[in-house]
Design goal:
Layout lengths: L13 H21 L2 E2 L5 E3 H8 L4 H5 L2 E4 L5 E4 L4 H10 L2 H4 L3 E10 L11 E10 L4 H18 L4 E7 L3 H15 L8 H9 L13 H6 L9 H16 L5 E2 L11 E9 L7 E7 L3 H4 L7 E7 H9 L13 E5 L1 H17 L4 E3 L6 H10 L4 E5 L1 H6 L1 E6 L5 E5 L2 H11 L1
The structure holds one RNA strand.
RNA sequence: GGGAGCGUGGCGCAGUCGGUUAGCGCACCAGGUUGUGGUCCUGGGGGUCGCGGGUUCGAAUCCCGUCGCUCCUCCCA
């Protein structure tokens, strides 16, 4: 092996691609039903976009970005998420003033420099949606409904939704103070990370899994209990909508997310079948982000999920399976004339929309038939001198083994296979 | 960032108290059988035993280092 893969970046091979297409198709189809339109944006952006958008103090910006200078010494970064780019495009296109309400979705690779493990890689693939321009709680419910609907479409079970509200910027400020004063008396009894977090971002203490910290975390007040009147009202209405739509959720007062732009509604869709990386998708509101980027005050929300994790769940037998692949017809040939007939016939049949293959290595007939089997060909034609001369042959249905006489013209073959199907 | 396990043909593995030419299964290629498949039989190609150093008459095997992979923790998608 001369070159190795880059750590944490994987080839998605033909044997697995069916699962990926299945997941992508579910995303695209769900987006159609919910009327979210696709946007594709560059894989590289100016570093500042992410640093400002996600927050300098976050793990992602602080230590997980693929950042490098371009040839003019500008700092660029391989996108670690999609929301910042969508908001940038929203402003670039003038939508903020011209078409402020937008429902968008995207699919594509993201990059984070993390230690790879099951369900976590350095180049990973996300599906996500963003809905900009409305503060209405029914939109929160729609975004969550989208997530559930997509999973339904894939037949994935064993899922549950964590839901919380972290309030507006002011609420976060006051909640931060509340947590600081809550934890301060016990800080000596808590882990070193929490020691540090108390100053930097006390919200993150709620995420701590250290046993010694648990008693204090359990006692901690929840963010949803310290919302301003507007935010409390909003959260209540989001829950009302979810109830009305029959969408289940569990309030988790400790759910705080790792990116700074979130406000109010936050949620994660968890899988019971994923082991340690069990978040299938996560998202929330970011009502201040457009403004952070210099636009007019514009609310927004969305979620992003990981295709790798989705594929793991699907491959473990949860839900839908990709259709088995196979070609319509294999043309085995003998001798020069048979081969000529096979090559030309293949061209015409392919143009007619059939999936057709032939042997390209001049192998014995028996090996060609073995190949036809490996390709799961549904039909077989053997073409030799006789067939080339008479323009008639016998087409075989591989599974049943039965043969039918047939004229060797594209039209006759297409007609025969159409009838079979 | 912390922890555990593992690196031997393409894949999955055996071999590891140091001892001839490093094996097996699958896959691949060819032949048995130049005109009808999935079976079977025979043969074949393919390995610097992750890499570097050390110990030794001798290292896949022991020691040190290093790189990589996998999982857990952490964080998240």
């Amino acid at each position: 092996m001369t070159y190795e893969r880059i750590r944490g970046m994987y080839d998605i091979l033909p044997v697995d691609i069916g699962w990926w297409r299945l997941a992508e198709a579910a995303m695209i189809e769900t987006a159609r039903c919910f009327n979210y339109r696709e946007i594709r944006f560059p894989i590289v952006e100016y570093t500042e976009l992410f640093a400002r958008g996600m927050g300098e103090a976050t793990d992602v910006v602080g230590k997980e970005m693929y950042t490098f200078p371009d040839r003019k010494e500008r700092s660029l970064t391989l996108r670690p998420e999609g929301t910042a780019s969508v908001v940038r495009a929203y402003l670039n296109e003038g939508w903020a003033t011209q078409a402020p309400f937008q429902k968008l979705f995207y699919i594509g690779p993201m990059f984070r420099y993390e230690k790879p493990q099951k369900g976590r890689c350095r180049q990973f693939h996300q599906f996500g949606i963003e809905a900009l321009g409305s503060l209405d709680p029914s939109l929160d419910a729609e975004v969550i409904s989208f997530a559930w609907s997509m999973m339904d479409r894939l037949g994935i079970g064993g899922l549950w939704l964590r839901l919380n509200s972290i309030g507006c910027a002011q609420d976060r400020e006051t909640y931060r103070d509340i947590l600081t004063s809550h934890f301060s008396p016990f800080v000596d009894q808590m882990c070193s990370d929490c020691h540090r977090r108390l100053d930097e971002n006390p919200l993150r203490i709620l995420d701590c899994k250290e046993p010694q910290c648990q008693p204090f975390i359990e006692e901690a007040p929840g963010s949803a209990d310290h919302l301003c009147a507007d935010c409390a009202d909003h959260f209540g209405k989001v829950r009302d909508w979810l109830d009305r739509l029959g969408l289940e959720y569990r309030i988790d007062p400790r759910l705080v997310r790792g990116i700074d732009y979130y406000t109010r509604t936050v949620f994660e869709l968890m899988s019971e079948d994923l082991g340690s990386q069990d978040t299938l998708l996560g998202g929330g509101r970011y009502d201040g982000l457009v403004e952070t980027f210099g636009g007019p005050p514009t609310p927004g929300l969305g979620f992003a999920g990981g295709f790798e994790r989705l594929v793991i769940v699907l491959q473990e037998g949860q839900g839908a399976e990709p259709p088995t692949e196979g070609i319509d017809l294999f043309l085995a040939s003998l001798g020069t004339e048979g081969r000529e007939l096979a090559v030309t016939l293949a061209k015409h049949l392919r143009e007619a929309g059939l999936s057709v293959d032939i042997d390209h290595r001049d192998r014995a007939l028996r090996k060609q038939l073995t190949l036809a089997n490996q390709l799961s060909s549904r039909h077989l034609l053997v073409l030799g001198n006789d067939e080339a001369a008479s323009r008639r042959g016998r087409i075989k249905q591989m599974e049943r083994g039965e043969e039918t006489g047939i004229a060797l013209t594209p039209d006759a073959i297409v007609e025969h296979l159409t009838k079979e199907a």
